[in-house]
């Protein structure tokens, strides 16, 4: 299957992140072997694109790691909420004390 350069440039992000189908991946690799322009584009993309992070724990069957990730996230949300409430209460107390002095 011969792809046009515009289509390959659209597929580069999926190809780089490993999200392209096997057929698309093979077609992009085949095109990159024969097209210097697209090969240069892909090299430039690789340098500028962030490294993909694999948060797809469920598909790998690693439920313990997924549960740990969820617990840590929940803990940070709780800490953030408590910090917000504490700061709000401090501001309210300071405002009330200031109003009492006047």
UniProtKB/TrEMBL annotation:
Full protein name = Anti-sigma-W factor RsiW
| Putative zinc-finger domain: residues covered | 5-39
Family under the similarity heading: Belongs to the zinc-associated anti-sigma factor (ZAS) superfamily. Anti-sigma-W factor family.
- Which residue ranges run through the membrane? 75-97
Q: Which UniProt keywords apply?
A: Membrane, Transmembrane, Transmembrane helix
């Amino acid at each position: 299957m011969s792809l046009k350069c515009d289509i390959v440039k659209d597929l580069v992000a999926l190809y780089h992140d490993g999200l392209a189908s096997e057929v698309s991946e093979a077609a992009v690799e085949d095109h990159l072997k024969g097209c210097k322009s697209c090969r240069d584009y892909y090299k430039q993309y690789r340098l500028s694109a962030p490294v993909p992070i694999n948060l797809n724990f469920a598909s790998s069957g690693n439920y313990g790691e997924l549960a740990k990730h969820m617990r840590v996230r929940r803990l940070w949300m709780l800490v953030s909420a408590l910090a917000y409430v504490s700061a709000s209460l401090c501001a309210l107390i300071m405002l009330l004390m200031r109003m009492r002095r006047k």
